[in-house]
Give the backbone structure.
Amino acid sequence: MPRSVNSVAKRARRKKVLKQAKGYFGRRKNVWTVAKNAVDKAMLYAYRDRKTKKRNFRSLWIMRINAGARTHGMSYSQFIGKVKGAGIELNRKVLADLAMNHPDAFEAIVKKVK
């Protein structure tokens, strides 16, 4: 009896990977072996960088809060310590937005914690 090969599923798998490689340069977009490696690497980068993005944004928020706090004569660590001590439950994202876009509201928070 001849060997049965599921070519339909094989083709579907390859089409799925080649569709993911759409927009890549050169043979990465249309040669199966090259595209498969490129897509696998891209997926690894995407997984890794979803975590890194959170890290980068937290770092950005801290820089913005620090800049806002220093204009009022406080360091970042002093400011955050006093915010926690005063029981103000605003996270770093909101504090950074206030420091950047609403300096008067941020100043009110600084005056409250001083």
User: Anything to note?
Assistant: DSSP finds five helices and no strands in the chain. The first helix runs from residue 7 to 20.
